[in-house]
Write a structure and sequence with these properties.
GO molecular function, one term: peroxiredoxin activity
CATH class of the largest domain: Mainly Alpha
Number of strands: 0
CATH topology of the largest domain: AhpD-like
Largest sheet: none
Radius of gyration: 17 Å
Strand content: under 5%
Pfam family, one: CMD
Number of domains: 2
Domain Carboxymuconolactone decarboxylase-like: 47-97
Shape: globular
Oligomer: single chain
Protein name: Alkyl hydroperoxide reductase AhpD
InterPro entries: AhpD-like (IPR029032), AhpD_core (IPR004675), CMD-like (IPR003779), Uncharacterised_peroxidase-rel (IPR010195)
């Protein structure tokens, strides 16, 4: 197996039962265990807490569509130059939209992608919050509301953007490598 993190990575024999159950569920749903699951399992309690928060924000019905949440993930990950997250969430965006060119374009420069006004407003908001969070003001919500987003959706978008900024930093800082399956997914 290729190295997937710059830290030690537990295997099935050393991972605790809760982690093994999550890995088995991922294997059943995806056909593989994401390397981010394996790499973060070194600290199983914090991994499972992260997964709970991530899953609650990203993998559910909410005020944004799954495609919108993945769009935000790809924009944030591209801006942060997080290889793991840009690749893995680019694959998810391809799956949700059926458009490989859109996902690839968004990963490099969302402004060149054929987005709806609402998607463009979400991307602009994600960009500002990612690159210059200290410059956020109440006025930043105006464009989101003008694009038709209600406050519940704005809060959800902000939480998703925050989650991906945190996850990008962990993945990049520890050299997480995306699974090979992600590169083929949705193409």
């Amino acid at each position: 197996m290729n190295r997937i993190s710059w830290l030690a990575v537990p295997d099935e024999a050393t991972a605790p039962e809760g982690v093994q159950k999550l890995w088995a569920k991922a294997q059943g749903n995806l056909g593989f265990v994401p390397n981010v699951f394996r790499a973060q399992a070194l600290n199983p309690d914090t991994f499972l807490a992260w997964w709970h928060d991530f899953n609650t924000l990203v993998n559910r019905d909410g005020h944004l569509t799954n495609a919108d949440r993945e769009l935000l993930a790809v924009v944030v990950s591209g801006l942060n130059r997080c290889v793991y997250c840009a690749v893995s969430h680019g694959a998810a965006l391809r799956d949700y939209t059926g458009d490989a060119a859109l996902a690839d374009t968004v990963a490099v420069n969302w402004r060149h992608a054929p987005l709806t006004p609402q998607q463009a407003a979400l991307c602009a908001y994600a960009e500002k919050l990612t690159l210059t969070p200290a410059h956020m003001t109440e006025d930043d919500l105006r464009d989101l509301r003008a694009a038709g987003l209600i406050d519940h959706a704005i809060l959800e978008a902000t939480q998703v953007i925050g989650m991906f900024n945190m996850t990008n930093r962990v993945s990049s800082a520890l050299g997480f490598t995306p699974n090979a399956e992600y590169h083929r997914q949705g193409r």
